[in-house]
Amino acid sequence: MPVRRLPDSPNLDHLKAQAKDLRRDHSARSAMAAQRLREFLPRCRRLNDDAIFATALSQSEALLAIAREYGYPSWPRLKAHVEGPSPIDRWKTPQHELITDPTFRHAVDLIDAGDAAGLREWLRMHSALVHQHVTFEGGNYFHSATLLNFIAENPVRHGKLPSNIVEVTLAILEANPDAASRDETLMLVATGSVPRECGVQAQLIALLCRHGANPNGAAKAAAVLMEDASVAELVKHGAKMTPILATALGLPLEDLTDATAEDLQIALSVASQSGRVDAVLALLKAGANPNAYNPPGGHAHATPLHQAAGFGHLAAARALVEAGARPDMRDVLWNATPLEWARHEGRLEVARYLEMVGQA
């Protein structure tokens, strides 16, 4: 789920009021509150709505959830940012400009300059650098970045990659970063627009997989974010075929009996946003819920009907509604209905259909 952006002049009392409202909505058994807690309160990550409502939500937990909604790991970190003398707008400042460690910053500059030889020498001189993390707050992801992560240009910093980025990446891989760093970088590459637009996505995927990166998590993320070419490339390098990947690749969904409930739900999101009516029907038949918010990692702020409406897929929207999808459900981030999504995106045919459904 995308995190919220703090206002230009954030106010602690207003943020505390949001936590109070979240506790109230939790007590009222709001499905939207359950989804927010599933996404942003770690203990709720694997719980269904009933289990979330069964336990009281403390004030400290509500404050933690609010902080994480804004991209901060804890309430004290959010509070420190708000009370700081000159808060930095981390939404507008490229990540490399927020790095305070000069050794790490120089390594990132070498990546951006395409200086593979210089980077190799710098890593030889500073061998611990390949395992170091830098912490960023206030954004949607990239919270604890390693040096290898920066080769993906995701999040976008310059909008381009050096022409020899594969060689630069190899220089870092030769310094033996840990498995988590390789896996995270593969996901960033597979879902990044800049590697795709620079024509190096497939090469980087192949290189990272050859050096031990696990293709499965990256393939799932790429499917959710409609990077279908990355999905196909990752399958070539060993990603296990799942209903999510099959849906993204346009393959038939023949046997869903062993699929987890979460995979079915994410696959329904993918099918809805891509307009695959056959997959929508198959997934609904297998037990996917047309009214559930998408699971974390799968556009969790919205329902499948929001996805179909926003992307303008009338047949998919119709299939969902006929299966019981509620057109009055509101998304978590903008508090909008599928009809409002369709109108916002100019999907007039879908909007007219949802208007008609609402009047029936």
Distance between the termini: 32 Å
User: What's the multimeric state?
Assistant: single chain
CATH architecture verdict of the largest domain:
Alpha Horseshoe
Number of helices: 20
Low-confidence stretches: none
- Look up the CATH topology of the largest domain: Serine Threonine Protein Phosphatase 5, Tetratricopeptide repeat
Reading off the top of the CATH hierarchy, the class of the largest domain is best stated as: Mainly Alpha
- Count of β-strands: 2
Q: Which structural class matches the secondary elements?
A: mainly alpha
The run of helices and strands is HHHHHHHEEHHHHHHHHHHHHH
What spatial form do the alpha-carbon principal axes imply? globular
Total number of domains: 3
Average of per-residue pLDDT values: 94
Q: Tell me about the biggest sheet?
A: 2 strands, antiparallel
**What Rg, in angstroms, do the CA atoms define?**
22 Å
Please describe what this structure looks like:
The protein has 360 residues and is mainly alpha-helical. The protein has three domains: 12-83, no CATH class; 95-240, Serine Threonine Protein Phosphatase 5, Tetratricopeptide repeat (Alpha Horseshoe); 261-359, Serine Threonine Protein Phosphatase 5, Tetratricopeptide repeat. The protein is built from 20 helices and two strands. The protein has helices at residues 12-27, 31-40, 49-54, 59-69, 75-83, 102-113, 116-125, 165-173, 179-191, 193-197, 201-210, 215-224, 228-236, 243-248, 261-274, 277-285, 304-310, 314-322, 338-344, 348-359, and strands at 133-135, 144-146. Strands 1-2 form a two-stranded antiparallel ribbon. Helix 8 (165-173) runs parallel beside helix 11 and helix 15 (261-274) runs parallel beside helix 17. The longest helix has 16 residues, at 12-27. It is globular and about 65 Å long. 45% of the residues are buried.
